[in-house]
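Lab notebook page, bench 4
Experiment: in silico fold of construct C2
Operator: M.H.
Input chain length: 81 residues
Purpose: comparison with the prior construct
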Amino acid sequence: MRIEYDRDTCIGIYQCVDEWEKFEKDMDAGKAELVGAEETEDGTFVLEVPEGEEFDAEMAARVCPVDAITLYDDDGEQTVP
């Protein structure tokens, strides 16, 4: 499972932080950070979801009010949102 995070879309509500420990508050920027993610050329942050953390990643994606977080299964199919 892979998670993609569009930091530019984030509005700093931080609901994802409450759902998954891989998201942390960046109070200076007013946005969440996806810890350990790699930034792609288009500015999206990508991280392979560690085994056993799929549910937490899914919840983080589901609670994002601006759909800045997208989840993909192992076949590359979008699962959330």
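Observations: The radius of gyration is 11 Å. Residues 26 and 75 are 32 Å apart (CA to CA).
Next step: discuss at group meeting.
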